[in-house]
Amino acid sequence: MPHPYTQAIRAREQGEEGIRLQKVLAQAGFGSRRKCEQIITQGRVEVDGKLVTTLGSRVDPSHQQIRVDGSRIHLNDKHVTLALNKPRKVLSTMDDPKGRFTLRDIIGDRYERVFHMGRLDYDSEGLILMTDDGELAQHVMHPRYEVEKTYIATLNGHIGGNVCRRLVSQGVELDDGLIRLDHCAIIDHNREHTIVKVVLHSGKNRIVRRIFGAIGYPVTRLVRTQIGPIRLGEIRPGSYRVLSAAEIKALDKEVGL
Q: Which residue ranges does the record assign to the RNA-binding S4 domain (predicted)?
């Protein structure tokens, strides 16, 4: 139970006038109060999109968006974001009435409120991001922010570099419109298969499989290796890790937070 004096101080600091901006910055890890005062007076802080340089300014961090050097600050609000390596034959959902394996079987019950940001189809593998930060999830999944996604696809058949170049420059017409790849490169090939690295912004369902299927090269294996600045790295299939503060900051910047 906090001491009555401590409660009084908290009540005064978090009353109608909010909390001093430099204290919020200090709590977010930007250094001492003195250092945070310098950050404010240097014109590096915005509150709800407006530059703030006055040291006496008070804010409500639970309802206002605060940025330093253009990046959203994070108080220790217990949000968690995970990078997970989904194997084949696992559903991109948290439960399944048919009893098939889901993401919940991988992360268990430790993170009750997390949900997946986007999906991979049942037979695809690789990186899925999960979070309990609703604002971050909304930005990552919204088409407006066009987060790049990188895949390694194994194709049935041998294709040449001209096919990759055409998918970037001209694209392919699908049932729901024209789609172009941002990048396409052949990694390896033999007479029967070609392995390509592709990058695109679209998050449409089964988009990589549909693109190559439309030109006669079915995808036999598909692994997503990167979403924005977050890489799959050394995460083993069926495992996950918690993103670092630096990775969260990079992801925030990628989606305009």
A: 19-79
Domain with CATH 3.10.290.10 in the chain: 5-72
Is-above-0.70 flag for pTM? yes
Residues found in the chain: 257
Catalytic residue, chosen from 105, 121, 123, 132, is 121
3-state secondary structure of 160: coil
**Dist CA 73 CA 24 (whole Å):** 9
Condensed to tens digits (0 to 9), the pLDDT of residues 29-48 reads 677 778 889 999 999 999 99
φ/ψ of residue 76, rounded to 5: -75, 75
How far is 65 from 48, CA to CA, in rounded Å? Answer: 5
Whether 188 is catalytic is no
Q: Where does 148-240 have alpha helices with state H?
A: 161-169, 207-214
Q: In angstroms, rounded to a whole number, what is the distance separating the alpha carbons of residues 66 and 46?
A: 6
Q: Which CATH fold topology does 81-144+230-255 show?
A: Alpha-Beta Plaits (3.30.70)
180, 167 contact by CB (below 8 A): yes
- CATH architecture of the domain with range 5-72: Roll (3.10)
Name the fold adopted by 148-227: Pseudouridine synthase (3.30.2350)
Give the whole-angstrom CA distance, residue 181 versus residue 211. 9
